């Protein structure tokens, strides 16, 4: 007959030590998971910051190109579009494009989870109505091909619903007609 030694009983200190090891192992696994989560958050934040910085640089460059007389260009576009020069048309193209580029940036931010659809959708409706308020803005929009399909969809919905201003209101409602 073989004599097996009796099972060894763990002391309370050994049991406590084992539980501490299990707890420490769980803490390490939790910490690694938290680190992965934090790294993912940092990546998304860096992407969002890149989008904002790129848009800021583009806007600063575009504003420098538009110059100080942009108000005069918008006035001619509103009241005497036949008097627009080639330079005016280039500036208006840039001006209208800037309005929608800001929306495209918000769309990119939504893709990254940094903005919600109502934000860019509301802004697009406001800016698109302003573009559409100029005859030249309507012609500009009809000539555009490369904008995000979501932007095109919202613009088409506005047009189909008849929610766009008539030309000569210059995107400002009745304001200009009262001032003139």
Shape: rod-shaped
Task: Please identify the structural class as seen in this structure.
Answer: mainly alpha
- Provide a count of the helices: 7
Give a count of the beta strands, DSSP E runs of length 2 or more. Answer: 0
Task: Output the radius of gyration.
Answer: 30 Å
Amount of beta strand: under 5%
Number of individual domains? 1
Main sheet specs = none
Distance between the termini: 116 Å
Description of the structure:
With 180 residues, this protein is mostly helical. The protein has one domain (44-179). It is 74% helix and 0% strand. It contains seven helices and no strands. It has helices at residues 12-66, 70-79, 86-111, 117-132, 135-143, 149-160, 175-179. The longest helix has 55 residues, at 12-66. It is rod-shaped.
Set down the secondary structure blueprint.
Blueprint: H1 12-66, H2 70-79, H3 86-111, H4 117-132, H5 135-143, H6 149-160, H7 175-179
Helix pairs in contact: 1-3, 3-4, 4-6
Quick summary:
This protein has 180 residues and is mostly helical. It has helices at residues 12-66, 70-79, 86-111, 117-132, 135-143, 149-160, 175-179. Helix 1 runs antiparallel to helix 3 and helix 4 (117-132) crosses helix 6.
Keywords:
74% helix; rod-shaped
